[in-house]
Design brief:
Helices cover 33% and strands 20% of the residues. It contains 15 helices and 19 strands. The chain has a 6-stranded mixed beta sheet with strand order 4-5-2-1-9-11. A 5-stranded mixed beta sheet has the order 13-14-15-17-16. The longest helix has 22 residues.
């Protein structure tokens, strides 16, 4: 059964008193490549079989131990990970193996709500790195219905280290797997974390884990955040990437921004992705890694991709481009409306920081309108939620060209950016880009450049 089909059949809510399936996982080598798994489910569940989400060629079942909700399995995780090579399921690298819980455990075949409890032992050496927190008996707990929200685990000999300047975050990457020296990698991640802290006015992650996975592709091709039980930022980094490649890339900055907002999925991912897409180039500009011209050039070039979602089909019905750029266009409009109504004192970003201060980070779920209502409460008038309602279910007219004219920014043929300081909303431009009338000090890239 596919992951989506399995989870769709389950109740939507998980409770702490749900019946359990307990797993004892023993790593037969220090890399976590070969596993022995024993599982025992609450008899009340009536489990008669377990489902492997992965290729069954890598599982072996003990027929004598497979009954009455119990099972014993041998799993060649290393072979499966070598075949998959996907951070959404499993990857083998260096002296370790990455696996997400859904592809690590044999799952009970049931439509009932179940709490999965698992612990991993390494008698031959090695350990597990995860953002999940064990209970007093050493078990990690994940509701079956939320299995796809749980971050990956690293099994093997890789050790985490605190990110310089941000003890709330732990960095893990295979030693020697990347062209760039480890201290340069740590300096880059630390610089991104500092820019993120500046934006949120605090570290938005509590006990988060940052995993950098070597990739044969160039640059920083992909990243994502999973947050159940603790935030995990997983990013692919090209094995031959240079320090300049890291500096020029946006992926890690985008993923770090996600740490500061609650997970909102009741109307789709557009607001989460819109927040990260809109503020990512701003954070890089404030850090001194991107010019103001480049920020406006990116927005003028890319925001038209979000227009169908905003004006026609609605944000909750948008495809990939609409989710990201439709969401970003909404955030730009919300930023403008908030700054206008408050005389430049309160922006949409201030609303987001207020939500974070209330505990609304990526590890919790909020309805979309709850966040927008918090913004309206801060502004003292119902305007941002009203703006969203005009564009969520179905489109509403937006004159993007007029918006740029009112801001006094345009792009000439060839990509040159022109500014009109006499435009109606020109006074908002520095507030949007710099967060005030003066530019913040650049973030030092000491240790970032060179050697690549």
């Amino acid at each position: 059964m596919a992951m989506a089909a399995l989870l769709a059949a389950l109740p939507s809510l998980a409770r702490a008193d749900d019946p359990t399936c307990d797993y004892d996982v023993t790593a037969l080598d220090s890399h976590g490549a070969k596993l022995d798994i024993s599982v025992a489910c609450d008899p009340a569940l009536g489990i008669t079989k377990f489902t492997a989400l992965s290729n069954r060629d890598h599982w072996w079942t003990d027929p004598n131990g497979y009954k009455d909700g119990k099972g014993r399995f041998t799993y060649d995780l290393g072979a499966f990970a070598g075949t998959e090579g996907d951070m959404g399921s499993a990857i083998a690298f260096g002296d370790a193996t990455l696996a997400t819980p859904g592809f690590l455990l044999p799952l009970p075949d049931t439509e009932r709500a179940v709490m999965l409890r698992f612990r991993i032992k390494f008698p031959a050496g090695g350990h597990v790195l995860t953002a999940l927190r064990p209970d007093k008996d050493g078990y990690y707990q994940v509701p079956l219905v939320r299995l796809d929200e749980a971050g990956p685990l690293i099994l093997g000999d890789i050790k985490g280290q605190p990110i310089p300047g941000d003890p709330e975050l732990t960095l893990a990457t295979p030693p020697g797997a990347l062209k760039i020296a480890p201290e340069q990698i740590a300096a880059w991640v630390s610089a991104v974390a500092e820019g993120n802290r500046r934006f949120w006015a605090r570290s938005p992650a509590k006990g988060g884990l940052v995993l950098l996975i070597p990739s044969p592709r160039g640059g920083v091709p992909f990243g994502r955040v999973l947050s159940l039980g603790g935030a995990v930022v997983t990013v692919l980094v090209g094995q031959q990437a240079t320090t300049q490649d890291l500096y020029d890339d946006w992926v890690l900055v985008h993923e770090f921004i996600h740490l500061g907002s609650p997970l909102m999925r009741d109307t789709g991912a557009w607001l989460n992705e819109g927040i990260a897409t809109f503020y990512e180039p701003i954070l890089r500009a404030r850090a001194g890694w991107k010019s103001e011209d480049d920020v406006w050039r990116e927005w003028i070039s890319s925001m038209p991709r979000g227009m169908p979602a905003m004006t026609d089909i609605g944000l909750e019905n948008a495809g990939r481009g609409g989710i990201y750029w439709g969401g970003a266009l909404f955030v730009l409009m919300a930023e403008i409306e908030a700054l206008k109504s408050s005389g430049g004192k309160i922006g949409f970003s201030d609303c987001l920081r207020t939500v974070l201060a209330e505990g609304g980070d990526v590890t919790v779920k909020w309805p979309t309108m709850k966040l927008l209502d918090r913004c309206d409460a801060l502004l003292g008038k119902p305007m941002i939620a009203k703006l969203a309602k005009q564009h969520i279910e179905k489109g509403s007219a937006v004159d993007l060209d007029q918006l740029w004219r009112r801001l006094g920014v345009s792009m000439a043929e060839g990509g040159a950016i022109r500014y009109d300081d006499e435009a109606e909303l020109a006074w908002l431009r520095p507030l949007i880009i710099w967060g005030g009338t003066t530019r913040p000090a650049p973030i030092s890239a000491s240790g970032f450049f060179g050697g690549g």
